[in-house]
Known about the structure:
The protein is an alpha/beta fold. The protein has helices at residues 8-14, 16-24, 42-45, 57-74, 83-86, 109-120, 135-139, 158-177, 183-204, 207-215, 230-246, 279-293, 328-346; strands at 28-29, 32-33, 50-55, 77-82, 98-103, 124-129, 142-145, 222-227, 249-254, 272-276, 299-303, 316-319. The protein has a five-stranded parallel β-sheet, with helices on both faces. Helix 2 (16-24) runs antiparallel to helix 9, helix 4 packs parallel to helix 8 and helix 11 runs parallel beside helix 13 (328-346). The longest helix has 22 residues, at 183-204. The protein is globular, with a radius of gyration of 20 Å. The chain binds fructose -6-phosphate. The site of fructose -6-phosphate has 14 residues, from helix 4.
Amino acid sequence: xxxxxAHFMLKEIHEQPDSVKRxxxxxxxxxxxDFSAEGxxxxxxxxxxxxxIVACGTAMHAGMVGKYIIEKMARVSVTVDIASEFRYRDPxxxxxxxxxxxxxxxxxxxxxxxxxxxxxxxxxxxxIVNVKGSSIAREADMVVYTHAGPEISVASTKAYxxxxxxxxxxxxxxxxxxxxxxxxxxxxxxxxxxxxPEVIEEAIALESKCQFAASKxxxxxxLLYIGRGLDYALSMEGSLKLKEISYIHSESxxxxxxxxxxISLITEQMPVIAxxxxxxxxxxxxxxxxxxxxxxxxxxxxxxxxxxxxxxxxDIVIKLPQADQLLMPMVAAVPLQLIAxxxxxxxxxxxxxxxxxxxxxxxx
Length: 364
Ligand code: F6R
C-alpha cells in the first residue's frame, strides 16, 4: 500500500505532481482559470471588500501563501487567521466579505465553527476541501475540492501543495476579474501553473541532498527558519513540519525581525534554514544569513537557481529548479518537506504517526 516507499509521507511527497495536475486541470479552460463548475462567478468575486482565509495548521500556512499572492496580483485585502483565534475574537467579517476556509479533512472543529460564524455574519463562504462530502464541504456556499487523493500520513504534504495550487488559480481569476491583469497575462500565469508539476518533479530529485542536510540537523535542540515575503510564509510550514515529526523545536521568523530580539539565540548550536526565492528580497535575506553565520550558525540555504552566493556564506546550498518567482512556494515546499522527513527518519521516529497527534482534529 505504500507503493514501495518506506513511509506514506514519502509516498505522498512523490505524489505531489499528480495531485496538482488532478486539482488544477478541471479548473483551467483554454489556459485561463475557470471555476464555473464550482459556481463562482468572477463578477461577484471582484466585489468583495475583504477576503478572510481561515484554517488550522498546515492549511492555514497554505492560506498565508494565498494572502501574499492574492494581495499582490489582485490588490484585494486578505486577512489570514487561525480558526481557533478567529472564532473567539468577534471578527469584523460582514456581508461584503468572502470567507475562504481551507481544510484537508473537512472535519476540523475550529475551522467548521469559523465557517458557521462567517455564514451568520452574512458573508459568502467558500471551502477548499480534500474529503468529499465532509462537514465543511456540506456547509459552505461554494466548494472547491482539491484532488490530492487520500492523505494517510499525519504530517500533511500533498494536501498543502494542492491547496496552494487553488490559491494561485483564485488569485489569477480575481486579478483578471478586477482588471489588475489582462487576458494575456492571466493566461501566461495559468500556463506557468500548468507546468509546475514538472518543476515539482525536479524538486523531488533533490532528495539525496535534503537527506544530507537532514543528517547535519539531527543533533540540534532547536532550529530557526528564516525568509521574507512568500519565503516567510513558506518558512512557517517548513518549521511546523520539522517540529511535528522530528520533535526538534524550531521557529520561523521573518528574516527582518531577527535584529529585534531573536538573533540573540544564535550560537553554533542553532542551525538556520534560510529560504531565498524572491529576487527583490534576496539581497536582504543574504545579509541576514551573513549575520547568523558570523555568530556561528550552521546554515542551510534553499535558493532560486540564479542566486549568486559567495562561498562560505551558507554551509549547504540547495538550488531549486527554475520557475517563475511567484510560483516558487510550490517548488521550495518540497525540500522543506524532505528535510523534515529525513530528519525524523534519521532520528528513528514514527514518521507517519507522530506522537500525540491525530490526522483529523474534530474537537477543539
Ligand atoms: C500538519 C497538519 C495539521 C493540519 C491541521 C488542519 O502537518 O496536518 O496542521 O493541517 O490539523 O487539518 P485540516 O486541513 O484537515 O483542517
